[in-house]
From TrEMBL:
Residues 373-395 are annotated as: Disordered. This is Kinesin-like protein. It holds the Pfam family Kinesin. One of its GO terms (biological process) is microtubule-based movement. Residues 16-338 form the Kinesin motor domain. Belongs to the TRAFAC class myosin-kinesin ATPase superfamily. Kinesin family. KIN-7 subfamily. Keywords: ATP-binding, Coiled coil, Microtubule, Motor protein, Nucleotide-binding. One of its GO terms (molecular function) is microtubule motor activity. ATP binds at residues 102-109. GO terms for cellular component: microtubule.
Length: 395
């Protein structure tokens, strides 16, 4: 997984966004109206439009991505082959993001719920097997609803401000960050977030999520035993699980009033995401309008920056959704051209440095003591050794 576009550049590795497409089965509603399934995954990486429609002859019939998943594929398979490598790279100090993109009711939440669970489970498995390292996991969650950022770990729905940090990039002010005790604690927090998330009813999906959701896990790890200068460092990285709101045009999923307002904002964020992806697909030259929406500001580093990124585009196979499916595939085609430059994020932890110096001091003290004769026959030598120890202590 992870098509390499070049070698190390500026300490990082140039790598394309890993793009996969997942087709869900026809749902009850589609079956009831005898909708036709138009798409077929002919192998592991190509999806074709299998029924010829004369009025559609100008559209491509075959699309190739890093991976395509038919309606028979399980979420476990989508995870293993389409997201795992990107997700667990956070353990090696590499920032990563996994997105689900697609029209409403195409399976974004269904897919992301599984992907999040499997990634976190693999992260905890890894931690279990690497007792020689100490891990600190911090969880935060936010949603972007009507272009306002809200903390999903807080019952307070006041919008949060975005700030620009010269080192960290865009940060969300006052976003709650919970230090995780274990995997059960993570599940508890997740269920709290689900309750907080805005849900509305549209004509396409009764439980449609009208907001973009970003779940974020920050992981820091350092060696428990500091045996040399080589392992003084702490690896620090973040993984984002991004469940986007439906990508359909406002007219299709919306009725009026509130829904319409939501739709305009949803489209503004997704429109900017589309523009950013389209511009980046042609190279990093020129102005990239990250600042035009909250979504692209918050996720800037995952779009052409210091991160590994996987995008799973979900779609319905039904003919009634052909327009949306084509739009999704067009988005996916642009996304696969985007190149990121992920780096291992190493920080020198003060704690590790102090620990190392203390050990070094203890070792030198004991070395010096061994050199001192047991009798006090030479008081001058003893004084000199004591002075040496004092000098070391002062360092
Ligand atoms: N691959 C799949 N296999 C079986 N059922 C699926 C699959 N994908 C989605 N579904 C079902 O389809 C319905 C809609 O899926 P989901 O809520 O994930 O869509 P969504 O893209 O997140 O929609 P929205 O943008 O409105 O939030 C759900 O009932 C879900 O269980």
């Amino acid at each position: 997984m992870g098509s390499i576009a070049g070698d190390d550049v500026g300490g990082g590795k140039e790598e394309r966004i890993f793009v996969s497409v997942r087709v869900r089965p026809l749902n009850e509603r589609e079956l009831e109206r005898s909708d036709v399934s138009d798409w077929e995954c002919i192998n592991a990486d190509t999806i074709i439009f299998k029924n010829s429609l004369p009025e559609r002859s100008m559209f491509p019939t075959a699309y190739t991505f890093d991976r395509v998943f038919s309606c028979e594929s399980t979420t476990r398979q989508v995870y293993e082959e389409g997201a795992k490598e990107v997700g667990v790279s956070v353990l090696s100090g590499i920032n990563s993001s996994i997105f689900a993109y697609g029209q409403t009711s195409s399976g974004k939440t269904y897919t992301m719920n599984g992907i999040t669970e499997y990634t976190v489970s693999d992260i905890y498995d890894y931690i279990q097997k690497h007792q020689e390292r100490e891990f600190i996991l911090k969880f935060s969650a936010m949603e972007i609803y009507n272009e306002a950022v809200r903390d999903l770990l807080s019952p307070d729905s006041a919008p949060l401000r975005l700030l620009d940090d010269p080192e960290k990039g865009t940060i969300v002010e006052k976003l709650t960050e919970e230090t995780l005790r274990d995997q059960d604690h993570f599940r508890e927090l997740l269920s709290f977030c689900e309750d907080q998330r805005q849900i509305g009813e549209t004509s396409l999906n009764e439980m449609s999520s009208r907001s973009h959701q970003i779940l974020r896990l920050a992981i820091e790890s350092s060696a428990r035993e500091v045996s040399g200068m080589g392992n003084l460092s702490t690896l620090a990285a973040t993984v984002n699980f991004v469940d986007l709101a439906g990508s359909e045009r406002a007219s299709q999923a919306l009725t009026a009033g509130t829904r319409l307002k939501e739709g305009c904002h949803i489209n503004r964020s997704l429109l900017t995401l589309g523009t950013v992806i389209r511009k980046l697909s042609k190279g990093r030259n020129g102005h990239i309008p990250y600042r035009d929406s909250k979504l692209t500001r918050i996720l800037q580093s995952s779009l052409g920056g210091n991160a590994k990124t996987a995008i799973i585009c979900t779609m319905s196979p039904a003919r009634t959704h052909i327009e949306q499916s084509r739009n999704t595939l067009l988005f996916a085609s642009c996304a696969k051209e985007v190149v990121n430059n992920a780096q291992v994020n190493v920080v020198m932890s003060d704690k590790a440095l102090v620990k190392h110096l203390q050990r070094e001091l203890a070792r030198l003290e004991s070395e010096l003591r061994c050199m001192v004769p047991t009798s006090t026959s030479n008081p001058d030598a003893l004084k000199e050794k004591d002075a040496q120890i004092k000098r070391w202590r002062k360092r």
